[in-house]
Design the sequence.
């Protein structure tokens, strides 16, 4: 997707560009995540100039949650609400062009998508409100960038497609937790099955 494809019926969703993921001192630093700030800012500027809705997302966990390995999950402690690690990485969106921030996991919910979360200890999915926000603004297409391409970015793109939005994942404006060839192939195949278009894939 190039600049000509951004318009008032498109949303740019910037996923989890937070210190714990995008800063080398973060507890779950995604290799190369710190190199994305400038390119994503450029993308935000182009999108905003075209009237595109710009949304930032944040993991925003309580100190204890089944999402963390210390409480039975699979991830190290990260993005605890109100901490440095949960803050958006320094320099992101310096001109404050984003019109909304969606926070995920605020009550200990599990899940990775900016659209849906799972209630702790159940199989019940609950909406974050992002789909409703986009529909209120007559959005038809979604572009997804940020961290990490094999986890929250991919999950967000799949959910956007499942919600009926035409969806593009900008792989070149993202980085994976697991950069192995096998993981990339599996993630890309999954996105293709979900109807997500991917640009810049390896």
Sequence:
């Amino acid at each position: 997707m190039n600049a000509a494809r951004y318009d008032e019926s498109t949303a740019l969703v910037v996923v989890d560009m937070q210190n714990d993921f995008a800063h080398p001192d973060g507890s779950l630093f995604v290799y190369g995540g710190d190199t994305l700030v400038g390119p994503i800012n450029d993308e935000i500027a182009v999108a905003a100039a075209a009237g595109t809705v710009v949304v930032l997302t944040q993991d925003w966990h309580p100190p204890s949650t089944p999402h963390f390995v210390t409480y039975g999950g699979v991830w190290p402690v990260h993005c605890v609400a109100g901490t440095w690690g949960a803050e958006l990485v320094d320099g992101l969106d310096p001109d404050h062009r984003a019109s909304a921030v969606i926070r995920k996991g605020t009550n200990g919910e599990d899940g990775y998508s900016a659209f849906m979360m799972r209630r702790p200890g159940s199989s019940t999915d609950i909406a974050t409100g992002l789909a409703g926000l986009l529909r209120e603004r007559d959005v038809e297409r979604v572009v997804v960038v940020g961290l990490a391409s094999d986890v929250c970015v991919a999950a967000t793109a799949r959910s956007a497609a499942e919600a009926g939005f035409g969806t593009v994942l900008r792989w070149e404006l993202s980085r994976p937790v697991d950069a192995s060839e096998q993981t990339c192939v599996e993630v890309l195949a999954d996105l293709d099955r979900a109807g997500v278009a991917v640009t810049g894939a390896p």
Summary: The domain at 3-199 is CATH 3.40.50.850 (Rossmann fold). The radius of gyration is 16 Å.
